[in-house]
Specification:
The chain has about 550 residues and is α/β, with parallel strands linked by helices. About 30% of the residues lie in helices and about 25% in strands. The protein is built from 18 helices and 22 strands. The strands form 3 sheets. Strands 1, 2, 3, 4, 5, 20, 21 and 22 form an 8-stranded mixed beta sheet that branches. It has an 8-stranded parallel beta sheet with strand order 6-13-14-15-16-17-18-19. A 6-stranded mixed beta sheet has the order 7-8-9-10-12-11. Strand 9 and strand 10 form a beta hairpin. Helix 8 packs across helix 9, helix 11 crosses helix 12 and helix 15 crosses helix 16. About 50% of the residues are buried.
Amino acid sequence: MKFLVRALALLSILLAPAAHADGLVDNVNGMTLGEKGEVVRFSGLMFNRDGVVTRLLAGNEKRPKQLEWRMDMGGKTMIPGMIDAHGHVMALGFQSLRLDLSQTRSLKEAQDKIAAYSAANPAKWIIGFGWNQERWGLGRFPTAADLDSVVADRPVWLERVDGHAGWANSRAIQLAGITAATKDPAGGRIERGAKGEPAGVFVDAATALVDKVVPQPTPRDRNAAFLAAQDILFKLGITATTDMGTTVEDWLTYRRMGDLGYLKLRIMSYGHGVDTVLAVAGHEPTPWLYGDRLRMGGIKLYADGALGSRGAWLKADYADAPGQRGLGFLSDDQLLNLMSRGAMDGFQIAVHAIGDRANKQVLDAIEVLSDNFKGDRRWRIEHAQIVDPADLPRFGKFGIIASMQPVHQTSDMHMAEARLGPDRLAGAYAWRSMLRNGSHLAFGSDFPVESPNPFVGWAVGFTRQDGDLQPYGGWRPQEVITREEAWAAFTIGAAYAGFAETRFGRLAAGMRADFLILDRDPLLASPTELRGTQVLETWVGGERVWQLKKPG
């Protein structure tokens, strides 16, 4: 009997899972934020084979003898991986593979680039993005005739930089069957000529009139786009992102990449509308998949359009377009219905709202729903760019998250002044007010509308200045936040916004080992130096997923 007991005990030892031996990334200038946003310093990071942090080591603290491996970083800076609280992964990937007009500074420059692309690409359709009539100083929307003058024999469809308008040539308009008799769809606007004919630009919901005839990407195209986006984000130090507006096809791509072992990026997915979420997740949020790399936990809704295309829904007329107040996409009852449908099944609700009227509509809806849906809901308002000062205190109620993008402020500041006039800017891009009123602040970039470079966004957060350090003292400097607060919004704040704060966003025992090795100390760098930060290595879950190639 004793022999049998001993044999069983020995067998249990042999069959027990192997201990998760620790590895150590040592000799680092390590810094992270604690749960309350305080700066925590360390010189070594230990994590196990599961990619989970087991210990932070201080400068002279004795190193363990039992290590599986040790890597000396030579004193380089280590910080947690940065998190983008609002991006569009597949759009970033596709746009990296298509015609890019985002750097063009005039209509003529854009036309030249379109002509060159057309000559080099014999595809049936020319598809691109990035145009911005404000940057061109055009004073109007571009027209189909502007495109016809360079490409008339093939359809052309180009998305505006903010994704809220499209520009088509006459061939594309013809293929879509759009004429002067075509009515503006709900939540959209067709820019028209003197006789009511489509002029070439389609705003918000009207873009679907052309999109329906544009060739759709194949699964192979989607795989390539995802891998391109993932590489771009890792290069810039983004280890996790919110994907705002995931479609069923996007979700299938992420699952396909996860099944094949190619999904390294952490994606907090918000489905594009209620129907998408029900098709993917059913009656409740999905579990975390692939080692905390993928989860659909929320629903993305739209209350209005964008400021640049005058689709943002305002309480009063646009200062530069009397008679126009933008586009409200949903009635109050429709918004309440959609939000309650998602909330009943435990999904987090994220609503795009840029104009002051749209923000008020969402705040009103949250106030009504908070009487019926208790608990930790973390209602999200995406962008929250133009808010009536009277509504700012409301962001501090009901656990609302202000999901904002610092780089929008520097890109939009002159346009916002023109669109609104100086007297209506008191609640514009109001980061300090959000924190002061008790809202949770999460920062992102809205990539590919803006560059996903988090170090640029971080610098803007505590300066409110562009890359040329303009304007002097910052634009509306009363809304500036501290360097540490801006860092928190790109890490622990962005993780909290996606119900992921216990999994990643900072470096501490029990958290995922997502970190960056940098060429400089971001807490000591000047704003200009911070913008130029070079990521040397990107690690996700204790695995090095990107490394800067040495010259030669």
